[in-house]
Amino acid sequence: MAVFTRPRQAFVIAGVIGLALSATACGTGDDKKSSKAGSAECAAYDKYEGHDGKKVSIYASIRDAEADLLRDSWKTFEDCTGIEIDYEGNAEFEAQLPVRVDGGNAPDLAFVPQPGLVKRFADASKLKSLGADTKTMAEQNLPADWLKYGTVNGTLYGVPLGANVKSFVWYSPKLFKEKGWTVPTSWDDMIKLSDTIAATGVKPWCAGIESGDATGWPATDWIEDVILRTQGPEVYDQWTTHAIPFNDPRIVDAVNRAGTILKNEKYMNGGFGGVKSIGTTAFGEAGLPVTTGKCAMHRQASFYANQFPEGTKVAEDGDAFAFYFPAIDTAKGKPVLGAGEFVVGFTDRPEVQAVQTYLASAEYVNSRAKLGNWVTANNKLDIANVASPIDKLSVQILQDKTGVFRFDGSDLMPAAVGAGTFWKGMVEWINGKDTASVLQGIESSWK
């Protein structure tokens, strides 16, 4: 994948202008603060003062336009405190971060999407525990369900940052209205709707799991969502930690239930072909036939809103929107599958702790949300600052105290399983291999 970054000249020019303003205001070129310092706008950042001229490096997988939004989101913090945040995004982040850390070239902070990787670094004594201010801020602002994923052996190392909701089904409100179809609120209703749509000659579902080296991951999300809906969070937790075998009969049942949709030729794969076309369809393109009438539904996370072509109206009355992936056993609660990033520290200098604390604050999450295309589980987020209808729905789901949230299972597992045999096993499964053989193979790989 090509990586595009904002021209460095823009930062150089901005830096020169900022230094000139500082020198004029304070009489010294050593002051990094802009002319905003001391203004009413900077009052919220007073608690982060005292680190003027210091630099903090951050490393993550977020690139391109999203990286530009990150830089914009903490610009006022930089201007007011004089701390410079040096951000680097890398498409090979998950592979390169361990290399850098083990080679003694760790960043100050990293945004890690996999709790399993947080544990790997914590177990190797590579991470710094949170400062008192950061820990207090995190415990005040983040749900316990999220904090536990950044906790290793009783110590909180990773503070949740951005989030996404995976328990969504994308559809076309315009098409549903035209055909008289109703958004289902139960699994049984969703299956009945699928049968109704199939009878019209339209394939009710479309899916794609091709994603380069990560091919297979969208199918793992399907399995995780169904396990939560058939077995509940307790069994889900036992499965992701290997307290029960990967091929436990309850997991076999859940995979087979997912297969009643994913491996059903009557249902799949609108716009692309039959079931086997799922394995060769790029995940980013898989839901696009929803807007052309070639398929009716596509299960994918909230971030899929960014995959639709420019000009697509993503709204309840638009070209595309999403509904909550319905519960199967209502006695198991209202499960929500999701994912996100965790801010971890490899150094603990005072300015690094200040940035880590800031990223957990109300000031930061609302600053980032105002720029669009972002949600968080942080309870200090004001939903009024969230513009996108699908992001608003995501925040409502994340802040729903009746919901049962669980993190993406493959991200919780050891990488060799979650991002290895599980991904590969799902490709084999889609291509026709039986459930028992696939799950036995994944179970055998778990060391």
From TrEMBL:
Keywords: Signal, Transport
Entry-linked PROSITE patterns: PROKAR_LIPOPROTEIN (PS51257)
Signal peptide range: 1-25
Family recorded in the similarity comment: Belongs to the bacterial solute-binding protein 1 family.
Protein name: Sugar ABC transporter substrate-binding protein
Source lineage: Bacteria, Bacillati, Actinomycetota, Actinomycetes, Micromonosporales
